[in-house]
Amino acid sequence: MDCHEFCVELEKSIIDSVRKCYPYSWDENHISFTIIQDLVAHHKMVSLEGLDHPFKIIWDVRKLRLPEESTYGDIGVLVRMTTWAGETLEGVGLLEAKKRDIGKSTFSATKAKQIKNILSNAPSARLVLYDYDNVSSCMDNLFLQFGNYYSYRHYGVVQPFTHCVCLPVGTALQQGKFTTELHKFGVPLSYQLLGRYFRGFDLELDPTTIQAVKNNAWRHGGPRIMLLVGVSTGNSEPILPEIDSDLYEKID
Asked: Which of 99, 222, 225, 235 could covalently link to 130 via disulfide, CB atoms 3.0 to 4.6 Å apart?
């Protein structure tokens, strides 16, 4: 599949997932599960074309067995990447999800104390904002980083908006307000996954943090959802990262 076409498909999948949760299932955990399950169900393994090197992805999803509150966010994106030169990189992207209040511009479940705690444990963590309205104020950030590939406007494939925006938790904390005004500081979740996490950016790389997220959920809590991602940018096949099956169960 062409890389740019895949970008469009991810965004369309996320848009559809968020829309079917509104208004009757407008809950952060439910929205998160719906988005991740839909993504993995439609794209279990994909080989992308259109870049200078191969870009192969395999992914799967796990659910935390214990519904603990996490010090590392709601969603973990555990990435194992093998480059064309044979290097291996493993890290975890961490997302704290919040939904927009119905009929308001606020994300009232977002608390400064919680965000500070996540920031202290995971400096690269992202706040992911679910919005039932079309969000266009972040799209310029996307076009600057990813060119015009993502929108495919000239094909009329996808509208220039999203329903799911990611921004650094530090930026949200510095702004001191948790409203739709934060949208302008973010990018769509689809780009955060494909253009950032799956290419090795914005990941927590400290081995202590990685092990805490993967194996120490009994002590720290853990992300409720763990997206396991194997990436290869060379001739080798991607390999999923390993995780403790006693803590995280496979979702059928």
From this structure: 99
What are the φ/ψ torsions at residue 65 (nearest 5 degrees)? -70, -35
DSSP per-residue letters across 69-113: PPSS-SEEEEEEEE-TTS-EEEEEEEEEEEEPPTTSSB-TT--HH
Tokens matching residue 221: 């809590």
Please state the pTM of the whole predicted model. 0.93
CB 10 within 8 A of CB 40: no
Residue 229, token pair as written in the block: 């991602």
pLDDT digits 0-9 by tens, 178-202: 999 999 999 999 999 999 999 999 9
Q: How far apart are CA 196 and CA 12, in angstroms?
A: 18
Both tokens assigned to 116? 């500070």
Spell out a b/e string for 4-34, using b for 16 or more CB atoms within 10 Å of the CB, else e.
bbbbbbbbebbbebbeebbeeebebeebbbb
3-class secondary structure, 15? helix
